[in-house]
User: Which sequence fits this backbone?
């Protein structure tokens, strides 16, 4: 029997953002479950017409909410862009606000600030660092240095934001929210970006270790 949600994904930081949140929601509420469709990026499956119909940008992840059908989307409502998927999920399925904050609150604004920071900074810059270090057809020292240095700078920003805190947003030491879920999978791949150790960022290192100890995070990383 089909589950209410289906995630089209691959084992990338952006894919893991969504599977981690889905595992957190499943553990928190029990009634939430999802199917997984693994997309072979090397075969360019994400560029095929059926996939483009769900996401015109031809990228993973894509979430289909089968419980939200319309005349335009009779098979379920599609959501693309990883951060947009996280926000959709907490808006629709996090009824008790376990991973979000009260609408209109300062904490909600702070959550969105960190999400936009990561979505416009950490992801794109670290993705370019990965490319020039591991996938570029020729060695481009400037590209490796440019994006590697920017990753280090962005990690420094996160380290400042986590000073005296367990999580990025929330009263006191904070609480786990989509602000953390949105950026942690990228930081997890710091070595791939040329940052061999997080010792220069003690707050960030402790935060990453804290998140990686969660069984829900381990389950999300194991998808697909």
Assistant:
């Amino acid at each position: 029997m089909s589950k209410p949600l289906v995630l089209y994904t691959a084992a990338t930081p952006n894919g893991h953002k969504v599977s981690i949140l889905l595992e957190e929601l499943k553990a928190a509420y029990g009634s939430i479950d999802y199917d997984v469709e693994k997309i072979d990026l090397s075969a360019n499956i994400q560029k095929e017409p059926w996939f483009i119909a769900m996401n015109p940008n031809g990228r993973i992840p894509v979430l289909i909410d089968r419980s939200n059908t319309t005349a335009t989307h009779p098979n379920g409502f599609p959501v693309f862009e990883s951060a947009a998927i996280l926000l959709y999920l907490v808006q629709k399925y996090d009824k008790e606000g376990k991973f979000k904050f009260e609408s209109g609150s300062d904490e909600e604004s702070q959550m969105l600030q960190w999400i936009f920071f990561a979505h416009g900074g950490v992801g794109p810059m670290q993705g370019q660092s990965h490319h020039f270090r591991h996938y570029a057809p020729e060695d481009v020292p400037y590209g490796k240095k440019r994006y590697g240095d920017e990753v280090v700078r962005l990690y420094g920003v996160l380290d400042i934001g986590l000073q005296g805190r367990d999580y990025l947003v929330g009263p006191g030491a904070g609480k786990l929210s989509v602000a953390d879920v949105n950026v942690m999978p990228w930081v997890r791949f710091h070595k791939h970006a040329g940052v061999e150790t997080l010792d220069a960022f003690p707050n960030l290192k402790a935060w990453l270790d804290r998140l990686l100890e969660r069984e829900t995070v381990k389950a999300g990383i194991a998808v697909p």
Q: What stands out?
A: The chain has a mean pLDDT of 97. The beta strands are 5-9, 34-38, 62-65, 77-80.
